[in-house]
Structures are given as structure tokens and as C-alpha cells.
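Sample entry (93 residues):
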Amino acid sequence: MNAASTKYVRFLHPSQWSWLDFDAIYAPDWRHPDNPPAYYRHSAQKCAEALIPGVVPPNYLTGAYVVDEAARNTLQQTGFNLPIAVEPVLFFR
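Predicted structure, serialized as C-alpha cells:
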């Protein structure tokens, strides 16, 4: 969950990745109009971040997801040479 969800967030060690609900994380829609608690929980899951102490060495990167072709072009112009997938459904718009 998003770290700002302080009452409900759980911080996991990388070895606990199997606890993550990938169906919820990658769901195309997080809205639950008839269920406010489910909406809050799901939107916090979709806005989650990884808190990294220090630096992530580049050899751990396998690619990137971007929202559109303009973002892909911008990322490529930085010298990023790993696979870049355009997946607008992963981004809040």
C-alpha cells in the first residue's frame, strides 16, 4: 500500500513478495462505487511504492513501463536501453 496509508500499510521485506496481491495491484480499475472501504484499500494498493534505502544498482533493472510514446521517447533520450513497454492502463489518468 501507499506509505501514507499509515493506519493500514504493511512494510514487507523483499523475501515476502508472495504476500502481495498482484491481481489487485495490476487491476485495470480500482474504483468500487458501492463499497467505499474496498475503494480506499484498492486505491492505496494501486498507489504503492517501493521504499529503497540507498541505491538500486542498474543491473537489477529489467525494463520500464511508460504511459505513452512521448514518455518512451523521453526515457530513450536519457540513454535508457532496456525494454520499454507502453502500458497506459497501469497509470492513473
